[in-house]
């Protein structure tokens, strides 16, 4: 934790400036001054959710709360659909591909992909509309 105060009259209980410890400081704040505490931490490499941080100030027996939130970079998800071949042969296998890509800097959680193959229909030699695929 680092801090910057505008006045030399503002003091911080220097004994409590310790690495990897919660902020629990006693500050004597000079008139018309402010102090900024900088908490610089290494974010968990597997973090995916919001980081919500709440600070509490107690003065004259009254608690005052302030909250700040760090959000993860969002995912940028795209979907591509393609066929492996341009033409199909009745009675033979054909392949569709579904490619899902996250082009973003953050995790993309709860991405739901659907491809309703059971609903594909094709006109048959008899003129009827039937299921396009029998097995997939």
Features:
136 residues, mainly beta, 2 domains, two-stranded antiparallel sheet, 10 strands, 0% helix, 37% strand
Counted beta strands: 10
Major sheet: arrangement of strands: 1-4
| Shape annotation | rod-shaped
Strand count, sense and barrel status of the largest sheet are: 2 strands, antiparallel
**How many H/I helical runs?**
0
Low-confidence stretches: none
N-to-C series of helices and strands? EEEEEEEEEE
Q: Radius of gyration, rounded?
A: 30 Å
Helical amount: under 10%
Structure description:
- The model has no long low-confidence stretch (mean pLDDT 92).
- 0% of the residues lie in helices and 37% in strands.
- Strand 5 (51-59) and strand 6 (62-70) form a beta hairpin.
- It is rod-shaped and about 95 Å long.
- It is mainly beta.
- The relative contact order is 0.13.
- The strands form five sheets. A two-stranded antiparallel ribbon has the order 1-4. Strands 2-3 form a two-stranded antiparallel sheet.
- It has strands at 2-5, 11-12, 27-28, 35-38, 51-59, 62-70, 77-83, 96-102, 121-123, 129-131.
- It folds into two domains: 2-70, no CATH class; 77-131, no CATH class.
